[in-house]
Amino acid sequence: MKIIRKLQKHIALAILAIVLATLIIPLPAVRAAEGDLWDEYAMPSTRQKERLLDNAELLTSDEESELLDALNSISARHRANVAILTVDYHNGPIQDYADDYFDYNGFQADYDGSGILFMLSMADREWAISTHGTAAYVFTDYGQEELMDEMLPYLGDGDYYEAFQKFIEVSERYFTLYEEGTPYDYGYKDTSPAALRKAFIICLVIGLIIGIIPLLCMAGALTSVKPNNNAAGYQIHNGLHMAMHRDTYLRSTTSRTKIPENDRSSSGGGSSFHTSSSGSSHGGSHGHF
Predict the structure, then answer these.
(1) pTM assigned to the model
(2) Continuous H helices in 127-254
(3) 6 in a domain, yes or no?
(4) CATH no. for residue 104?
(5) Are 124 and 288 spatial neighbours (Cβ–Cβ below 8 Å)?
(6) By Cβ atoms counted within 10 A, which residue in 13, 58, 107, 195 is the most buried?
(7) In this structure, are residues 89 and 35 in contact, taking their beta carbons and an 8 Å threshold?
(8) What is the C-alpha to C-alpha distance for residues 101 and 51, in angstroms, rounded to an integer?
(9) pLDDT of 50-74, one tens digit each?
């Protein structure tokens, strides 16, 4: 009996030791799935990847070098990571993948977490934008739509180098506007001298076209005019007939149709946010090209 109690005591102590060990010894981080471009689902203290990773091999080596230099330059200038990722395929929804790539490769470790990632996945011809920190307010929802409007023609034509150049160019403009206190958003009006000159030239050209067309039409009509030696052609030979005509007012009907409000105007623009698997708050958008 004493032996059984002693064994039970030893077993209980062993179980207690195992439980304490699991509580004290930290568990290893969960490994990333095969195909994911990060080692584990943990936030590193330093950035793990270059700001350009062309895994889908869409660029030449010279193009890759030029774009990486431009990304490093704009990132340092505006203190935010501006990065590009291309892959052949990805796991899960592309928005989640872009957020996780940003988080688990340490892009939050620089510049207080401010940054933007543009991602392409070629299997389903998808794109995604992931923003974080201050950059989420630089790239508003409306700004992202306008950015993609400028990039999509190049992406559709397979001109990826020009598309990425346009991404960097527009990003530069958005950061500058934000730093000047006027982020690019719904209702933004460009009042720079270059924009005003462009608007003046467009208005001038439109005015000239509107003025010239009626003159050309009148000139064309005058070509059929010929001199007439008498007024016989203008006489009415059936005589003059007059009749009484009366307009009687009966009633009036007014039809009203409500003009739908613009969704962004009512919402006031700005940036929308979602939470990534790391628990971080991200802005962003995604679609197909």
Answers:
(1) 0.69
(2) 135-138, 141-156, 160-179, 193-222
(3) no
(4) 3.10.310.50
(5) yes
(6) 107
(7) yes
(8) 12
(9) 999 999 999 999 999 999 999 999 9
